[in-house]
């Protein structure tokens, strides 16, 4: 993987915002940046991603995931990722330079 989820904290929203906010779920806890293990299903296979950026409520445990990290993960898990795409040219043929007459 060319870019790890660790390197995303310099680009992402969660860690670099440097703010805390009240949890929207319990209205008591504070959402704090953490690196967690993210779990998701890909067809019938459980995928785990360690060290994933998230904000976690210190009271109820609600998790909010960094949208850039989720987008990156989705692109990596996309079944079409890494496959060559066939380049289609339009019906117009290339013109050859005019030959001297």
Task: Kindly summarize this structure in a few lines.
The chain has 101 residues and is mostly beta strands. It has one helix spanning 67-77; strands spanning 21-22, 30-42, 45-57, 63-65. Mean pLDDT is 78; it is low at 7-12.
Describe this structure as you would to a colleague.
This protein has 101 residues and is mostly beta strands. Helix content is 11%, strand content 31%. The protein is built from one helix and four strands. It has one helix at 67-77; strands at residues 21-22, 30-42, 45-57, 63-65. The protein has a four-stranded antiparallel sheet. The radius of gyration is 22 Å and the shape is elongated. The chain starts with 20 loop residues before the first strand and ends in a 24-residue tail after the last helix. The model is unreliable at 7-12 (pLDDT under 50).
